[in-house]
Design goal:
The chain is α/β, with parallel strands linked by helices. It is built from eleven helices and twelve strands. It binds S-adenosylmethionine. S-adenosylmethionine (SAM) binds next to β3, β5 and α11.
């Protein structure tokens, strides 16, 4: 009989986000400082064998959904090889990828062949100059090429993650919606979170997505929509079209009561909550030759530490690590 992993608050944990690197080829203003170089050294990175062992343990515990993320996952060499190994684990129901798409154009075929079918792409603007300002890199064309290559290859659904930033990209929601409608993408708007120093300084650009929704309602007729698979976004559909828009509102309306996930960082730390420091170091166990049962027990023990909720509003200075280090 399939096992079910639950936390102390009765939430079923069915989803693990696996960060394969904390490095990134972009420096988004709200995520990573421009001059940051203090990344994990390769000897701390979980190897593909170690990642596969941890994911296998999760799968045996009933977790069928895995997302590869980072940092930027495509900067980790041979990512499609890892994807292929995870995709064929018995019990994996869904293997997806979060990427900024800068390197996606070269890897779409290998990733698709490996079994990845769903991809989320971060894209905060459709304007090349603004893209360079936000990300610190002149990679707009490569990003767009990667995104469109994913569409041609047949990835579906493709979701665009756009962090809403007052005074930065808040004149583009309608344009981004039109772009997503044209290409058959889902749009997800995200409130900026106070993670690390960059996240906290981006708080001055914070936008309550309830306001954005009201603004979009002036342009489009929005109807409530339920998207299977859970997740933090509340979705609407633009009436008369296939366009879905999701609102991810960790600050204005948190969704912790339905949290179903944990995050494995590249150094083998299991983070139980994006906005809290509760964690469990799996790497020492893996490198000490722990058997499969010991890894499963460690995951169960770790789950007992999962906090009820983040406190981004009440304690905005609490989370020191960057989003890129956690596998956002
Ligand atoms: N590099 C991949 C990507 O671009 O999707 C995966 C990692 S990235 C850290 C995951 C997501 O976190 C991106 O959509 C990014 O915009 C978002 N993010 C990073 N810092 C954030 C913050 N402080 N608040 C809200 N979202 C943030």
């Amino acid at each position: 009989m399939a096992r079910i992993l639950t936390d102390p608050f009765g939430r079923r944990i069915e989803y693990v986000r696996v960060s394969v690197t904390d490095r990134c080829n972009l420096r988004c203003s709200y995520c990573l400082p421009r001059d940051f170089t203090d990344f994990e050294e390769p000897e701390s990175w979980l190897t593909f064998d170690e990642i596969e062992r941890v994911v296998s343990a999760f799968v045996r515990l009933g977790v069928g959904r895995v997302r590869l993320t980072g940092g930027e996952p495509l900067v980790r060499r041979d990512l499609p090889v890892l994807a292929g190994r995870l995709a064929c684990l018995p019990g994996i129901e869904d293997l997806s990828l979060s990427t900024n798409a800068v390197l996606l154009g070269h890897q779409v075929n290998a990733l698709y062949a490996a079994g990845v079918r769903r991809v989320n792409v971060s894209l905060d603007t459709l304007r090349p100059e603004r893209f360079a300002q936000i990300t610190g890199a002149d990679h707009f064309d490569r990003t767009l090429d990667g995104l469109l290559a994913a569409k041609r290859t047949g990835f579906a659904p493709i979701k665009i993650n756009m962090v809403a930033l007052k005074g930065v990209n808040d004149d583009e929601f309608e344009d981004m919606a039109a772009f997503c409608l044209e290409h058959g993408f889902t749009l997800r708007l995200i409130e900026t979170m106070p993670m690390g120093e960059p996240g906290r300084s981006a708080a001055r650009h914070y936008l309550d997505l309830q306001e954005v929704r009201q603004r979009l309602e002036k342009r489009f007729t929005l109807v409530e929509d339920l998207v299977p698979g859970g997740g933090p976004a509340r979705y609407v559909r633009v009436a008369g079209t296939d366009l879905r828009i999701g609102f991810i509102t960790p600050i204005s309306r948190h969704f912790c009561a339905t949290c179903n996930r944990v995050r494995l960082a590249v150094d083998g730390t299991l983070y139980l909550c994006l906005g809290q420091d509760d964690s469990y170091a799996l790497r020492p166990l893996l490198r000490a030759g722990a058997d499969d049962a010991a890894i499963e027990n460690a995951i169960i023990e770790a789950l007992a530490r999962k906090p009820e909720r983040h406190e981004f509003r009440e304690k905005p200075r609490q989370t020191i690590r960057f989003m890129s280090a956690t596998g956002g």
